[in-house]
């Protein structure tokens, strides 16, 4: 497997036409879905060696976060803020430089402008709660 840089990775949001995705501009960083399984404890009054026993429970697609170099005149940034305010569930994609992609449905759970200072880029942190199963498609 060849190592790859994140340079050229895109975050996309499904547009007005189903199945058509639009790239969100000025994305500084992305944290892909953080998949987890719930732990289900098996209750036992006489466990072997005194240890708890577990089964894997329901799966959770986790959250996706991205940092935007915020620009209120950028349509994609305002679309994400609109998604938050309207509580709209949308389809999103993270497309890696080799065309591999994470695709998922979710809703914008958080839209947080970051601290503004004279010497740094104005940014906003966006958090998307994944609903359902995210899918990964290998690229070329």
What is the secondary structure topology, with strand pairs?
Layout: E1 10-14, E2 21-23, E3 27-31, E4 36-42, E5 53-60, E6 63-69, H1 75-86, E7 89-95, E8 101-113, E9 123-137
If classified by CATH, what would the architecture be?
Irregular
Per DSSP E runs of 2 or more residues, the count of β-strands stands at 9
- Could you say which structural class the secondary elements and strand pairing correspond to? mainly beta
Radius of gyration from the CA trace? 19 Å
Give the integer mean of the pLDDT values: 94
**Element string (H = helix, E = strand):** EEEEEEHEEE
Beta percentage is over 45%
User: What coarse outline follows from CA principal-axis ratios?
Assistant: elongated
CA(first)-CA(last) distance: 12 Å
CATH topology assignment: Factor Xa Inhibitor
The major beta sheet can be summarized as: 7 strands, antiparallel
CATH class: Few Secondary Structures
Q: Spans of 5+ residues with little confidence (pLDDT < 50)?
A: none
The structural domain count equals 1
Widest sheet, order of strands: 2-1-7-8-9-6-3
Q: Specify the helix fraction band.
A: under 10%
Count of runs of 4 or more consecutive helical residues: 1
């Amino acid at each position: 497997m060849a190592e790859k840089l994140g340079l050229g990775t895109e975050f996309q949001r499904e547009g007005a036409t189903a199945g058509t995705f639009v790239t969100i501009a000025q994305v500084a960083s992305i944290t892909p879905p953080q998949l987890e399984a719930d732990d289900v404890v098996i209750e036992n009054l006489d466990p072997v060696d005194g240890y708890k026993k577990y089964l894997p429970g329901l799966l959770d697609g986790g959250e996706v976060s991205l940092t935007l170099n915020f620009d209120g005149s950028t349509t994609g940034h305002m679309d994400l803020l609109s998604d938050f305010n309207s509580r709209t569930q949308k389809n999103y994609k993270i497309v890696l430089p080799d065309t591999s992609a994470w695709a998922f449905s979710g809703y914008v759970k958080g839209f947080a402008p970051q601290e503004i200072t004279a010497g740094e880029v104005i940014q906003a942190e966006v958090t998307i709660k994944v609903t359902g199963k995210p899918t990964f498609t290998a690229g070329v």
